[in-house]
Queue: 3 jobs
Job 1
Amino acid sequence: MKNKKILVFDDDRAILEIFSIVLESAGYDVEISATSHDIIEKVADVQPDLVIMDNWIPEIGGVEATKLLKNHQEFKDIPVIYCSANNDVEALAQRAGAETFLSKPFDLDELEKKVERTIESSPVK
């Protein structure tokens, strides 16, 4: 069985590194991006099973990038975990159309569980 692929969008290199280390040690293939304006090209390239999207990301921001993905016929069913230190992360995630959210700073176990649950409940197999 091939590993599930996760594409992480965040402009903070340290956070990208944490995501990579934690998720790769949990058995996922992880691709990272520090920009979100080219989300459709990146998703087409990587074909991820899950996207983790940061709120404050250069160019168009997380909400707009997630909306682009969710409005795309081919990729709209890829689940998105919206990630932010903002206190209204839940409202932002809903506005973006993300399946779920993760507040920063996050607990590493919580990250793993949320990723696992979101991938398991995804219609995309």
Job 2
Amino acid sequence: MDVINAAAASDFADRVVRWQRLSGRHDLPWQGGRDPYPIWLSEIMLQQTQVRTVLPYFQRFMARFSTVKALAAAPLEEVLALWAGLGYYARARNLHACARQVVERHGGIFPRTAAKLAELPGLGRSTAAAIAAFAYGERAAILDGNVKRVLCRHFAIEGVPVGRVEKALWSLAESLLPAGPDSGGDRGGDGMEADDVRADDMVADDIRAYTQGLMDLGASLCQRGKPRCASCPLAATCLAHQQGREACLPTPKPAQTRRQREAVWLLLTDGRQVLLERRPPVGIWGGLLALPEGLDRLPRWGLSALELEPLPPREHAFTHFRLKIRPFLCRVAALPLLAGEPGMCCLPLAEARAAGVPAPVAVLLGELEGG
């Protein structure tokens, strides 16, 4: 990868900043303030998830947990219930653990540097840098999936953006940051302190606009499938655009065959309530309420497979595998007795879908409730 000279780097950053201020996103509910809490919450939710999906979840979380202390004090089960449907549930567990650590170790105040933020649960290098940039104006580089795509295309960087290529991208991302305050010369003297503060504020504003601009470009113009190069402020110097290679970059990961798993779900109901089971804290849907699994537990409950009504099978896709679900309906008379087992509970059908259940469970419950 060629070294980017200072003039080219400055021009790249200036174009991103100008475009963001004119055409970028400015009306998202976590924008406009410097409170790190909503910024952190949004950045965690936006990991691997689009803005339009995140918006209602963010609003519900802020309405229920208005501060990091409120989130830290809540039981994990309540956090998972609000998160249900957003996916990647390890993020919710890390969110809760991070809130507690901020309260217990930092007095409820988020660290002010990307390096310290990255020590918190669930915060990688790029997420920590985004929070530090937006909340504190720190000159820190981000490198999420959208930014990798912008840089790989603009500079025609070959290779899957992991390992050695990712390391080179980090160096490039740092070299492209808007210039920091001038560290040379005498900063003392009468009348200089106010000027220095104003200059530092301008740099911080540039960092915020640049960071948001890179995110916005990747999300709105430099999209994976159909990049809108005609509207891109970087098109004139984009090597992929010049070479007609937008569809080739970034280099895609080799295709992998998605494994398939199978699960048997038991939908036990007395017509008014349904039996649910708390899943283990780790693994898929960790900590959520779900339907009991497996036919081997039927004899313990005094039930027979002959009493089960097979429902249409369905599939649910995860990142690395597909889950084939075989659901069975079983109508029982004494559901509360089954709920006495550890981890089990019975909830009214009308409430179960809002209790923090995985999406396919919510669909099944909706079908049952609808008759």
Job 3
Amino acid sequence: MMDPLSEVFSLINIRGARCTRFEASGRWSYRFPAKPAVKFGAVLAGDCWIDFGEGQRHQLAAGDCFLLANAPSYFLANDDHVLSDDGMSAFDWAQSDVARHEGNDTVLIAGTFSFEESDADLLLDSLPTFLLIPSRNASATVVRSTLAILDIEIKGTQIGAAVLTDRLVDILLVQVLRAALIQDDGDSLGWISALADPRIGRAIGLMHRDAAYPWSLETLAASVAMSRSAFSKRFKSLVGLAPLDYLLRWRMRLARNALRRGSTVATVASKVGYSSESAFGHAFKRIYGIAPRRYWRSVEP
């Protein structure tokens, strides 16, 4: 039986962009544009800082790993007195996954995850703009092992490197989220924190395992031994959605996945708890902006 995070990852369409390696020596500063996605970075050697402006500067050292979610533009640098270059145009990214500035005293690797717009809110809205997993974190050892293999594949030319890189990046995302939960001081990871919350996480698990059940606020609250008001307040504070709104969105994700696999609209409607195609159709269109029958035709083989 899958846990809620694994279930979500099996349904949302995560696409990993290519991974890149940056090597630098001497004095340097590069600026990078805003990115409406989840991006990871890791320092393999040396040190530098990442600066979002307005006093939001974070020192980075070897072994540190970080996530950026819906990040604004930022600078990577090791010297305040160097005029910043455009990190996207200063190197020939079209020809190489490795960028070099003089030497390799400092080495970083990075990659980007992108999602369908309808899926993005689950992770993008849950994560802070900048999430650092420092090398001293107990979980960083596991992350470093994955990073070491990933670095070999980025630099190498062996067959299957692209496939292996994609898989490693997926693994890395889960490892970093795990590490973040361990070091989290409360509820700052939103929906991710909700999965680790004993009661709210159990309620999410119940909805995931039996999405067709006629859940109500009362039955969900009772299943985790909370009052309706306390449960509703806690759920929304962590997840950002009311419990039944979350249930609706989860059902529609299941429905969309089933339609993609070729199931008929009537079958899908019943599978996710709707007694009529009409009611299901209204719910599906509310979330995805298209009627399920039209969606089904668009993905028919």
